[in-house]
Amino acid sequence: MTDLKRVTTLSLADLKRRGQKIVMITAYDALFGRLVDEAGVDVVLVGDSVAPLLCGEETTLPATLGQMMYHGRIVRRGTTRALVVVDLPFLTYQVSAAQAVRNAGLVLKRTGAGAVKLEGGRTVAPSIRAVVDAGIPVMAHLGLTPQSVHALGGHRVQGKEAAAADRLIEDAKAIEDAGAFAVVLELVPAGLAQRVTAALSIPTIGIGAGPHCDGQVLVLHDMLGLNDGFRPKFLKPYAALADIVRSAVGAFASEVRGGQFPDAEHSH
Ligand code: KIV
């Protein structure tokens, strides 16, 4: 049955046309999927950041298709309104356009998500075209592309020099021409993100890319202050949940050890 209540790729295009900002956030499970959906975000991204964030990996590279399909399915189950976008993990679309179509299709079939996201510019444009032609909406990702962290020499701001900035704009035009419906711009100077946003008719969604993008995305566990060891300049923590977790669990431990819990009020 068609999901008439959900945000669609067309709704996002409309938000850009009307100059209204798009809000995207990551989630990896049904509980947080429900909470961020109830908070009214437009897009929930099931990011391959699940690998470093929830699985203790150093990078996003170890994320697997099976893992992304599992997290995609449970996030989709928790949401009713937001567009759910699932990351295609490393090495599930870079080999060929046929590989990209097959894996993007499996993600949509098995998760119920509305779109996939993949990283790269001109080199992946033919694959974006093939996936879009198969009826699968694609969000692209430029700038700091975490699946290429080793080639990029770390998590550094991209497009600082004029030539690199021009290349990024060419990449952005290539992915738009290939049919992507939106693009994430990660860790690029605000002025460059502004140029890309003006050059494209599809929405740009920034993370560490300044205020001029058509929308903003943050990683949920970072902005909640749960992943409290991670404090890049662009990140604004909207809560300090790590402190709350430590203090609540510490209080529970101390009351159990001291015999104060369970008390009469919490016993049958
Ligand atoms: O995997 C992820 O969480 C992402 C965001 C940083 C945009 O791609």
Protein architecture, described:
The chain has 268 residues and is α/β, with parallel strands linked by helices. It folds into two domains: 9-237, Phosphoenolpyruvate-binding domains (TIM Barrel, Alpha-Beta Barrel); 241-268. Helix content is 43%, strand content 14%. The chain is built from eleven helices and eight strands. An eight-stranded parallel barrel has the order 1-2-3-4-5-6-7-8, surrounded by seven helices. α4 (65-78) packs parallel to α5 (97-111). The longest helix has 18 residues, at 241-258. The radius of gyration is 20 Å and the shape is globular. The structure holds 3-methyl-2-oxobutanoic acid. Residues 26, 45, 47-49, 87, 184, 186, 207, 217, 219 line the site of 3-methyl-2-oxobutanoic acid.
